[in-house]
Amino acid sequence: MIGRREFLGATAAAVAVVGFDPLGRGWVTEAQAAERPSSATPFAGAPALDGELVLDAPSREAVATDLGNITFHTPGAVLRPGSARDISRMIRFCRRHGIPVSPRGQAHTTYGQGLSDGLVIENRYLKRIHSLGPTTAEVDAGIHWMELAKAAYAHTPRLTPPVLTGYTGLTVGGTLSVGGVGGLVGGLHTGLQVDHVRELEVVTGTGDIERCSRDRKPDLFESVLGGLGQIGVITKAVIDLVPAKQRARSYVLGYDDTAAFARDLRLLIERPVVDHVYAEFVAPGTSPTYKIHATVFHEPDQPPHDRTVIGGVSGVPEIRNTSYLEHVFTIDTLIDSLRQTADWDRLVKPWFDVWVPGTRIESYLAELMTTLTPRDIGPLGAGLIYPQRRARVHNPYPRLPRPDGSDWAFIVDVNTVSATTRPEPGFVDEMLARNKRLYARTRDHHKGTLYPIGSVPLTEEDWRGHFGDKWPAFRAAKRRYDPDQLLARGQNIFRDGR
């Protein structure tokens, strides 16, 4: 592995790299190569690139952590690719020298999952929309969902991805690597984002550029979608598009009682007229403890009948009317405000994210609430619940809980955020221990599974249990497409080589 000390001599500006010195275990700049005799330059002849490879300290430090600000690894070099060929060339180069490689989108994981001491690939530099409409879009992996949503909505007729995460400032390749939950669009009548991909372009751990789909190299296609970057680097995706409505009407209902909340939640997710539902929760003691957000998308001249949407619920609704895109970008607007007022990107975020079986959500929440204090979420954090209809999920990854007789599974997030950029000593250790304890209880008692963007320390044995009966197929794909275990080592899934 390439550590920080080996690169302290880098200049403060972006530096062109010509090769890797296998003897000195360091990347070599043009200036350094010129100072050495040709007979002593086994590093010369690094691949020509359409983009650039940089090793200056600011560039490397900028990708040394993720959203969590818990784990830090400064890479030896950063690839800003200009094409899939760049990624292919550099993976082949790194494979020859045993250098680990991690792709990076917006790094919205919180426990160092995409960090590396070797080479980090900043996929956000691949950011073209290649084609759009009327039923699909072909985009680079570095395109943000916000950019795709705006472009699709501007199309005639108006279009939208069928599933959008709550925060849309994430890259397409990044969310497809973990699953992509419908935070503000999708979930009730759709699957996850990975269920709406027609085709991928992928660079494997051997450096091969492959096109894959459900009919072409299906083992690669299925294992890359939700595969946590283990099998290959997504460089392009062909994604479904569907017609978009112009308006959104949301009904926000508050509850202090878990049973009443869960009853109305189940009522609303089964109503065909309701297009999207998510819920918030806070630690007991703050009223309301729960909020349900139920949304109907509609045309301006065809507003929903409120009684049809919320008739029979016990909560008293607050009704909000917005444009479709205003609704889609609700969380982005909030996060942009927190960036300006609270130094959001530097706050510590030891998040906890799991799937809970549909039959267990009431008992799970009732138990979880007895353990939570205001400190567990923080003044800027959030507890979130996202329902997902099982019948709409077709890809084997991410790993939902085993079927339990319910049509539903629920994502439950405890998105802890520190009050300051320098929380008190022991805060991180305390929250990591909490996450480990909550995960063990979720897995062993409630039969839940991990949604692996949070801060939960896992062993190799934990990962094998997480993948369950899909472990042999996932391991076989790893051995076939990344035989040297070059990719995404920050997950620690294949650390022991089994």
TrEMBL record:
<dbReference type="GO" id="GO:0009690">
    <property type="term" value="P:cytokinin metabolic process"/>
</dbReference>
<dbReference type="InterPro" id="IPR006311">
    <property type="entry name" value="TAT_signal"/>
</dbReference>
<dbReference type="Pfam" id="PF01565">
    <property type="entry name" value="FAD_binding_4"/>
</dbReference>
<dbReference type="InterPro" id="IPR016166">
    <property type="entry name" value="FAD-bd_PCMH"/>
</dbReference>
<keyword id="KW-0560">Oxidoreductase</keyword>
<keyword id="KW-0274">FAD</keyword>
<dbReference type="InterPro" id="IPR016169">
    <property type="entry name" value="FAD-bd_PCMH_sub2"/>
</dbReference>
<dbReference type="GO" id="GO:0019139">
    <property type="term" value="F:cytokinin dehydrogenase activity"/>
</dbReference>
<protein>
    <submittedName>
        <fullName>Oxidoreductase</fullName>
    </submittedName>
</protein>
<dbReference type="GO" id="GO:0071949">
    <property type="term" value="F:FAD binding"/>
</dbReference>
<feature type="domain" description="FAD-binding PCMH-type">
    <location>
        <begin position="71"/>
        <end position="244"/>
    </location>
</feature>
<dbReference type="InterPro" id="IPR036318">
    <property type="entry name" value="FAD-bd_PCMH-like_sf"/>
</dbReference>
<dbReference type="InterPro" id="IPR016167">
    <property type="entry name" value="FAD-bd_PCMH_sub1"/>
</dbReference>
<dbReference type="InterPro" id="IPR050432">
    <property type="entry name" value="FAD-linked_Oxidoreductases_BP"/>
</dbReference>
<comment type="similarity">
    <text>Belongs to the oxygen-dependent FAD-linked oxidoreductase family.</text>
</comment>
<dbReference type="InterPro" id="IPR016164">
    <property type="entry name" value="FAD-linked_Oxase-like_C"/>
</dbReference>
<dbReference type="InterPro" id="IPR016170">
    <property type="entry name" value="Cytok_DH_C_sf"/>
</dbReference>
<dbReference type="InterPro" id="IPR006094">
    <property type="entry name" value="Oxid_FAD_bind_N"/>
</dbReference>
<keyword id="KW-0285">Flavoprotein</keyword>
<dbReference type="InterPro" id="IPR015345">
    <property type="entry name" value="Cytokinin_DH_FAD/cytokin-bd"/>
</dbReference>
<dbReference type="Pfam" id="PF09265">
    <property type="entry name" value="Cytokin-bind"/>
</dbReference>
